[in-house]
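Appendix B: complex inputs.
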Amino acid sequence: DTGVSQDPRHKITKRGQNVTFRCDPISEHNRLYWYRQTLGQGPEFLTYFQNEAQLEKSRLLSDRFSAERPKGSFSTLEIQRTEQGDSAMYLCASSATGGKFAFGSGTRLTVV
Amino acid sequence: AQSVTQLGSHVSVSEGALVLLRCNYSSSVPPYLFWYVQYPNQGLQLLLKYTSAATLVKGINGFEAEFKKSETSFHLTKPSAHMSDAAEYFCAVSVLTGANSKLTFGKGITLSVRP
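Resulting structure:
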């Protein structure tokens, strides 16, 4: 069990650019979640996958955000035309059905 | 839908004093409840969880929490604070099976420990 890994750890981008983050879950976990956390707030749910199927997306999620989990293993989260308000920590978590959630250390995005 | 409320954003205690962090939940179905801790620039670490077994749950680092259905509460306590307990603490609620299995977090409470 190597844990949930996220790449990159930090990303600085100019407003209007596209960014993509990667999450590698614990290998036997079939569920994968993306959260966003801003300063002073709890993690906010963005979307989740069961295997390769995206089962839920937050209503708060802009159309500029898209996530994929093409083979039911790793996942990517893309943000198009980034805005300063997108600056946040993006957390990935994985779990087996009914099991404990494991969180990655996150990707900190700064949009300048 | 589920939600949690963590009243107050900051709690400060003296080293050796009781720690009490409050969490109230709302859920249309029997909930599963969690406390997570987050140290600066790190991910979330599970302290403890309630999944409908014993109402008093013991976790890591000497923390425990009691599920009180009548009060819709799941407050986190520790008898004696250590300096190393200074961190941000999040209460979360979920149902662990079915389509709606995501964790919903509160806003978090920052715990400071004074020497």
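DSSP finds no helices and eleven strands in chain A.
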